[in-house]
Amino acid sequence: MPFSHHSHSGQFCPGHAKNSLEEVIQTAIAQKMQVFCLTEHMPRGKEDFYPEESSSSEDWHVENEAAFFAEASRLREKYASQIKLLIGFEIDWIRPKSLQLIQASLSRLPFEFFVGSVHHVHTIPIDYDTAMYNQARDVAGGTDERLFEDYFDSQLDMLQELKPLVVGHFDLIRLKSADPNATFTQYPGVWDKIRRNLQFVASYGGMLELNSAALRKGMSEPYPKEEICREFLSMGGRFCMSDDSHGVEQVGYGFRQVLEFVDRAGITTLHYLDISKGEDGPDSRFPATTIQSVSIEEIKKVPFWQ
Q1: Where is the PHP domain (predicted)?
Q2: Contact predicate 137/150, CB 8 Å
Q3: Which residue in 42, 194, 26 sits closest to 116, CA to CA?
Q4: Tens of pLDDT along 112-144?
Q5: Bridge pairing between strands 124-125 and 84-90
Q6: pLDDT per position as a tens digit, 195-224
Q7: Which residues have a Cβ under 8 Å from the Cβ of 58 and sit 6 or more positions away?
Q8: Cβ neighbours for 178, distance < 8 A, ≥ 6 positions apart
Q9: Could you point out which of 79, 100, 110, 283 has its C-alpha 20 to 30 Å from the C-alpha of 139?
Q10: What contacts 291, CB < 8 A, 6 or more positions away?
Q11: Cα separation of 221 and 232, whole Å?
């Protein structure tokens, strides 16, 4: 797993992450990663600022995005001989206005992809803290089952509107639930919605990220759970790797455990994003961005594990 498709820095995600963008990249290089994707959060409307962002403005977030892109471009050139960096961003699918904001980011700067994520249900953050999760659950009807259903319905809306090349932490909704390690199949209605979403991602060729952040947050499996991975595999689905790092201490975190998980889940091939000037990629919005594949057996031989 010398690849990660999802990362953040304290420089451009203040209050939420640590360290400069350059320090994060230097750590990835020291770990002998081959591809590392830079994906700071998109600008959101003020009504969706997190508590630590309350003193900032919408204009500041747009300026921060531009500064991130400029610095990422500079660092990509500086470290071009040592690592391949792709410049993207992570979306927030929150309310109808979200689509307009995402399209604005795509129109302002020549990003190379984005991570399609859902962090809110009924406009309430579901991974920030337990109190907010419980608030969203109450709005959904008072049970994890109802909230799970609403989450996967919102995720489908995002998938259908945006068809992201990388689908971020597919089952993030379990993080603050009563039992984050429980099977989704205990709720037939939820499982049907999961399968429906997976089929849609498979239909347009998107990739689910195997996101190791779940491990550092105390869960027994990365996002998504093994049962979801096996289901997606049966549909011909593709997987990529992400550490979802929020600073140097989390770069590459848990990748050895994820390698073991990959074997258990029966995944024999991983995919990763690349930039190619000689061929068109699968997404016309990002013509130079291609998807490459590598076998797990080849991955096990790379210097990263040393």
Answers
A1: 5-213
A2: no
A3: 42
A4: 999 999 999 999 999 999 999 999 999 999 999
A5: unpaired
A6: 999 999 999 999 999 999 999 999 999 999
A7: 43, 45, 46
A8: 144
A9: 100
A10: 165, 205, 207, 238, 271, 272, 273, 274, 281, 282
A11: 16
Nearest to 121 by CA among 167, 176, 191, 166: 176
Q: Please give, one letter per residue, the 3-state secondary structure of the chain.
A: CCEECCECCCCCCCCCCCCCHHHHHHHHHHCCCCEEEEEEECCCCHHHCCHHHCCCCHHHHHHHHHHHHHHHHHHHHHCCCCCEEEEEEECCCCCCHHHHHHHHHHHHCCCCCEEECCCEECCEECCCCHHHHHHHHHHHCCCHHHHHHHHHHHHHHHHHHHCCCEECCCCHHHCCCCCCCCCHHHCHHHHHHHHHHHHHHHHHCCEEEEECHHHHCCCCCCECCHHHHHHHHHCCCEEEEECCECCHHHCCCCHHHHHHHHHHHCCCEEEEEEECCCCCCCCCCCCCEEEEEEEHHHHCCCHHHC
pLDDT, tens digit, for every residue of 165-201? 999 999 999 999 999 999 999 999 999 999 999 999 9
Residue ranges of domains in the chain, CATH in brackets: 3-305 (3.20.20.140)
Of all residues in the chain, what percent carry a pLDDT higher than 90?
93
